[in-house]
Amino acid sequence: MDIILPEHHPKLLEQTFDAKYLYDHPLYSLMAEPTALPWLLVIPKQSLTEPAYIEKLYGEIYRLIHVLQQAGFGPHFNLAKLGNQNPHLHIHIIFRTEADEVWPSPVWCHEPLTTDDQMPATLKAALNDYFS
Q1: Distance set, CA 97 to CA 30, 41, 74, 103, 127 (Å)
Q2: pLDDT tens-digit series, residues 106-126
C-alpha cells in the first residue's frame, strides 16, 4: 500500500526519502537523489486512484522529462513507481546514457551508485525557469 504524506514540508520529505528537496508543485513535490545519474523523485500529493489526477500528474512528469532532455539530460530515461524499499508513494525518473556507470543494466541492481552531491543543484538549476 502506498502511503501518502499529508504534508510536504522540505525537511519531512528529505527525511522520508533520503533525497534533496527541489521544488513544490500543486500536484507533487520534486526531489533529487545525490547520485552521478540524474535521478528525480516525484512525490504525489494524492493517491493514484482518481483518473483525472493521474492524467494531470503524468502529463506534468512527461513535461519535466521533456524540459530536462532539452537541457541535455538523457537521451534515455527510466520511469518507475516502486514501493519495495520505501512504502511512501513516489515515482522515479532516472536519465540514462550509454556511458552511465551501470548501462544497460537497471540501476536498482547496482546500488550504491556513485555519489554526486552537486547533481541535485544541477537539476534544480535546469528546472528553474520551468518552476518560476
Answers
A1: 22, 19, 6, 7, 20
A2: 998 787 899 999 999 999 999
Could you tell me if residue 78 is inside a domain? yes
CA–CA dist 76, 89 (Å, integer): 23
Reduced to 3 states (helix: H, G, I; strand: E, B; else coil), residue 121 is helix
Strand pairing class (20-24; 39-44): unpaired
Q: Tell the residue number behind the cell numbers 513516489, with chain if given.
A: 90
Q: How many domains does the chain have?
A: 1
Is residue 3 in some structural domain?
no
0.85 exceeded by the pTM? yes
d(CA 32, CA 122): 10
